[in-house]
Each structure stands twice: as structure tokens, then as C-alpha cells.
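Step 1: inspect the first sequence and its C-alpha cells.
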Amino acid sequence: MAIHERTAIRPPITLPDAPRLPSLRHFGPNWYATVMGTAIVASAGTALPVDVPGLRGACTVVWALSAVLLVAVLTARAGHWRHHRDQARAHLLDPAVAPFLGCLPMALLAVGGATMVAGTPVLGERAALLVDVVLYSAGSVLGLGVAVAVPYLMVVRHRIDVGSAAPAWLLPLVPPLVSAALGPLLIRELPAGQGREALLLGCYAMAGLTVLATLAVLPLVLARLLHHGPLPLALTPTLFLVLGPLGQSVTAVNQLADVAPGTVGAPYANGLGALAVLYGVPVMGFALLWLALSTALTVRAVRAGMGFAMTWWGFTFPLGTCVTGAAGLARHTGLHAFGWLAEALFVCLAAAWVVAGTRTVRGLVGGTLLAAPPGRNGPRPAAVRTA
């Protein structure tokens, strides 16, 4: 007689759920904009031609926050590449995301520059200089690489539709200009000679790279607006990105003019001082025109229901470059009007930073900013060329 043994079925053991960490799958390079936008508040505040009690101390606190943000975003992006490499590669092939790779070198450069002007009271001169040398070197090399690599991808791998030019196209082109604007902080530390002159002229070369490239891209952006109307609501804040190369170039020519004496011969130093005003004033005028246009279109978008997105950080760094540019013109022209302009723009910058920062924290806590964008789980087949 066969004996059938009945195996008892035990209920599965239920373990408590492990805590879930926010997913990094959709943590894109645009997050470096939080670092840039924070660091520029510290740099712009120290550049103002007015002594406000407590302002420099506040700028030091903001600089420290930007340094913490840089470490946090670098760590998160490293985790993104390690655990979601397919999505990271998809970002490279996405014409809407790839331009934001320019935010990485600008974040490094912005924190390095802020360390020199706002972090010295905490770190000391030698440590602040060392930090800036490391971040400036890494940011400059990466910036030059991105300025070539992203346009290459746009030509070879991306499919760019007619009339789809976007202000974000400027992002990979601006890092060399940021290097040019922050180079004078290191030029001052070099002894007179070949090295100092080479860095000065190299900064002018990097400035020219971005300015001439901007002259090629900006007409495409303006034509897109005129022929196809306003940008989608979520992308409207990216119009402020145009202020980046404008304000940063004015900042660069003024900062470089400050260190030209003793670096190059007197005739050239005097000419570079004149260039700071002859170039800076007209470009600042155009920047104010673009600021007015962008503000009007943003108000229109808000009235149409524009909600918060990470593009709101586009209000910060570009506006900060206009603050430093206006402050440089106040220094070289002696006009109080430029000083008042710098102060007014800084108030707008601080307000934009507070709003963007508060909404970002709220979005992180709620989990909405790390969720998959609607319909954007990878590169769109129609947007990628075959090699």
C-alpha cells in the first residue's frame, strides 16, 4: 500500500518593506543648474558696488550650500551612470537633453569662482586657491570638450527639425566663456611672464569662441520664435538662457581688463580697457532688451498656466551674469546707473533663486521631479539618426 506523504505548505514569511530611495533613472544633467544658480548668487553678491551689512556673510553661506550641492549632484549623477547606463546613453542621443551636458563644466567653474570670492573667509586663501585651480582646470577642459562633442552629436546623431532651434542650444557653447570670465581670479595669482600672458590671451580666445558661436545660434532661436510662436509653457523659462552669453561676455571683458595691466604691454592693456566699455555697454543694452522680452513671454506663460519645472533654474545663472556684467561696467565707467542696475538685477536674482529652490525642494519631497517625464522614457526614434 503506497503511502502518500502530504507536504505542509507554509505561508510565506512577510518581511517589512525596505525603505525606498528616490530613483536616479531620470536624474539628468539639467540638475547641475541648481549648482550654477546657487553659486552665482554668492559671486554676484560679492560683486555689487555697494556694501550691505551682512551681505558678504550671507554670500559665504550660499557658497557653502553650492559646494554641498555640487558634491550631491556629482554623486547622484555617478549613481545614474552606474545603475542606469542605458538611460544615460539615451540622454546623449536625445536632442532635448544633450545640450544640458554643458551644465556640468559650468557648475564646476561657478563653484570654483565662488570659492575664491566668497569662500576664502572659511577656507583661507591657500585652500580657496587650490580648490579654484582644481575646479577651474577640470571645468575648462570639460567645457571645451562639451563645446565640440554636443554640436558633433547634433550633426551626426540627432535629427533636428526645421524651426526647432531652442535657447538650450547655447548651453554647451557657454562654458568656455565662463572660463574666460573667471580666469582673471587665477591670473592675479600668477607672476608676470609668459604663463600669465598666455592665460589672459587664452581667456580672450575662449570668450571669442562662445561669442561667435552665439552669433550663429541666436538668429536661429529668434527666427523660431517669429515663425512658430512662443515656446511651450514648460520651456518658456529657457528664454532667459540667452542672457547667459550676453551677461557673461560683458563680465569677461571687464574682468580681463582689470588684470591686463602688468600682463600685456601698455598699448594693449589700454585697448583692452577701452574694449570693456565699448563692447560691454551695447551688449548690456541688448541683454536688457532680451530680458524685457523674456519677462513678457514668461508672464504670458504664467497666465496660461505654466507650472514649475526644472527649467525655472534658467532664471538664475543667466540673470546672475548680468549682475556681474553691470557691476563691471559700473567699475570701469564710474556711472552710478550701472551700479543701480546691478543692485536691481541682484534683487531679482535672489527672488528667483528662493522661488526655484523652494519649489525644487518641494518637488523632491513629493517625488514629482524624479518621476519619468511623460512619454520620455528614452530617445525618440524619430529624433535619432543612424550612424
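Step 2: inspect the second sequence and its C-alpha cells, then contrast the two.
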Amino acid sequence: MRFTRRHPLLVAVPLCALAVLAARPADGDGPHAPGHGSASGVSAEVARLYEEAATATERYEAGRREAERQRNRAHELEERLDRERRDMAGLHEDLGRIASSQYRDGGGLPLTAHMLLADDPEQLMRGQRVVRQAEVSLDKAIGRSERAEARLARNEARAAAAWKKLEKRNAELADLKDGIEAKLESARWKLQGQADASVAAGACRGAVRLDQPDTRFTSGWVAPVETYELSASYGSGGTRWASRHTGQDFAVPIGTPVRAVGTGKVVKVSCGGAFGIEVVVQHAGGYYTQYAHLAAVAVDQGERVSPGQWIGQSGTSGNSTGPHLHFEVRVTPEMGSAVSPVPWLARHGVSL
């Protein structure tokens, strides 16, 4: 599982406009027809909410980590307070033993009487000074302990107040995250409904110009999606394919931004057939990459693309049993010429 880049939280855009967007595709004869579709709408809304949900999740997780740190600090303070209380109890016991010892040794008589009755008055005075010093030391120790207990109690109260405030903030962040995710889920299926209508008509709606992420890649090649789980692999069998699976599937939710894996030229954008909505990009060296089962496209045929550029949004159009991106590497633009994509990406420095 890979983890996504996070962006600053964007202002949520109401979804009420989604209801007025038409579900039928633009007129066309099958190939991609540039100029159709709207730059705003469900695709752009899904992209915005996708970023907002990622940021809200990141903030929520950061809050939970801070809460755990606060909990640990409170636990440490409580342990320190318990140690101080045990030390004070020991000091009080020592004071009690000294008082009992003085009483047994005639502590009830005045010091002058003790000196008159003592065989060695100097030794008695030395003993009395030792006892007095012990009492003074004990009083100081008790004072320090009491001050430490008061200080720790204040710290404990502050920690409890901070914990309560943090819990409230985390609850608000959880509500925010859940609200964005609910909007995103609704928008995703509206987007998929539009994609299904386009595939049924065999006509693409046109490129939706999404706000591209402000990201600079140090490598010339990237994975086709940022956050994913690998599902069906190249060459695997199953009833869903006529022979063997010809690509690598990335399990991602509807509306996940799909990226060009490298620099190239869009040579095909089509809607219909087993692959649903698909984009094919030509790269240097005689290779082509295909991105299929999309819910929307963000590029036109003939357009140049760069590594990491959003070229579409994932979906479950065509012959698909659930949301995912079908990614192929080919030696021609057409199906039937696929090579294993995972080692091909690895040779270009992309490890899945």
C-alpha cells in the first residue's frame, strides 16, 4: 500500500450543482471529441473532494497521534506524583519514629533536666543537635515534597484540560472527515453514472481540465496512481478475460486521479467496449501505456503529457467488476501487444 501526498485543506464546494448536470454523453461518433464537456462539474468536484478527504484524514490522524502523546505525558505525570506521595509517606514515618524515640528517651523532660541528670552532658548536647538537625532536614524534605506534589497536581490538571480540548478537536476533525467522505462517495457515483452513459453511447464527454497538483518529480517515471492496492496481475487467469489478464490492476476508489507514468503523447481516448473509457499514451522507445476502466478523462487526443500529470480519473466502466485502474504496457497502441508492466516499470525505476 502506498500513501498519498497531502495538500492544504481546500474549501469544500457544495454538491447541490451536481443534480443539474446531465447524465447523457455529448454527441459524437465514438472517437474523443475535443471541446465537449465542462471544465467544472462532477469530475472537478470529485478531484477537489478527493484532495480534501486526504487532507482531512491526515489532520485527523495527526490529532490522534498528538492525543496519544498527551495520554503518555499524563500517565508519566501520574507516576511521578505517585512516587512523590510514597516518598512523603516514608518521610512522615521517619518523623514519627524520631518522635517516638525522643519520648522513650525522656523527651518529655526539659533539656536542662536532662543535662543535670546525664552522666556526660556534652554527649547529650551532641545527641540533641543531631536530633535537631534531623528534624530540620526532615521539615525541609517535607516542604519540598509538598511543593512538588502541588506542582505535579497543577501539571496533571493542565494535562487533563489539554486532553479534553484535544478530544473535542479530534471529534470535530472526525466529523469533518466523515462529511467530506460522504460527499465524495456521492459525487463518485454520479461521476460513474456519467461514465456509464458515455460508454453505452460510445461517445466521450470530453476532457475535464483538472487542477494539476503542484508536484515536481525527481524521476522521469512514476506509478499510475499514488495510493493503491495491487489486485489482478499480468498473466493471471479468470472468467473475466478471454485468455489471460493483459495488465496490472490497481484497486482504487472511483475518481482517484490517474497519472501519466512518463513523458509522452496521447494517441487514443475512447469510450466503449470491454475497456470502457480508456487513454493510451505513446512513450519514447516504442512503448505505449494504457489506462482503462476510467470514469473521466482529463486530456485530449494528440496532447503531450508529463510524468505525474493527471490524465483521468479511475472508475469501473466497461467490463469491470469493481472500481480499479487497468494499466497496460504495449509495443503497439492496440490490444494484443502487451508486455508485463511491473518489471517494465521497475526497469524505469518505479517499484510497486
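Step 3: confirm your contrast with the notes below.
The mean pLDDT is 78. The first strand starts at residue 229 and ends at 230.
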